[in-house]
Amino acid sequence: MTDQGLKAMAQSRAPKFGHFVVEFATPGIGHILKSAGCDFVLFDLEHSGFHFETVKSVIRYFEAAALPTIVRVPSKEYHHIARAMDMGAEGLMLPMVNNAAEVRHILNSMKYHPQGGRGVALGVAHDRYTPGAVADKFVAANKRSTFFCQIETAEGVENADELAAIDGVDCLWVGHFDLSVSLGVPGEFEHTKFKDAITRTHAACKRHGKSLGRLVPNVETGIQLVNEGFDFICYSGDVWVLQSALAEAIGRLREGTKSHRS
Prior knowledge:
Elements: H1 6-10, E1 16-21, H2 29-35, E2 40-44, H3 52-64, E3 69-72, H4 78-86, E4 91-94, H5 100-110, H6 134-144, E5 146-151, H7 154-158, H8 160-164, E6 169-174, H9 176-182, H10 192-208, E7 211-216, H11 219-228, E8 232-237, H12 238-256
């Protein structure tokens, strides 16, 4: 897909492919992912241990590679949401969003007046340290910011239609492991309860013209989900891609050099 921002991506049902970063916030990571063909990156704060100083740096790496960045913050606390936006996150992902009241709080925390009540900081990282009229800055920031609402609980599924209907929600993102646990079928992604939850979430997205996303462990699952109606596909994560490729290569090296062992 051609280079475009997350907001434009979320307004299209064409497949978008990205990668999950939980470990390697290195200076070259943006260009590495971009040269691999990624359309976006999902940068995790929930499980990675990264802090906002790292976010501030790594988003510059992604900007240098023109790679749109979704930051998943660790909670629904205002300071987590607003600080991620101040650091320059184009997209924001929130874990375990359950109901409309939580969505309204999130949007109020990430959007500037008149769409929200986010504290004002201009001429900093999120607007690339540039000057400009306050009103214009507010409009640009609100237009650019893209909200990925994570469906990870039975309550979230129950309210999926209401969540997808809210202006400002750009994508419902299925957190498959946590959702399966919440439904009482841990890791059973072929279980009727889980499949019914996906059907309901997809229907909500389709009804309200919103994107649908998920992390996938392999190519086959990604292709299957696109065929089922998902359009944001995040392929695996940095740790697991490296580990898998290295394990395969080391295993083949050992197998191919058996005759040289004493």
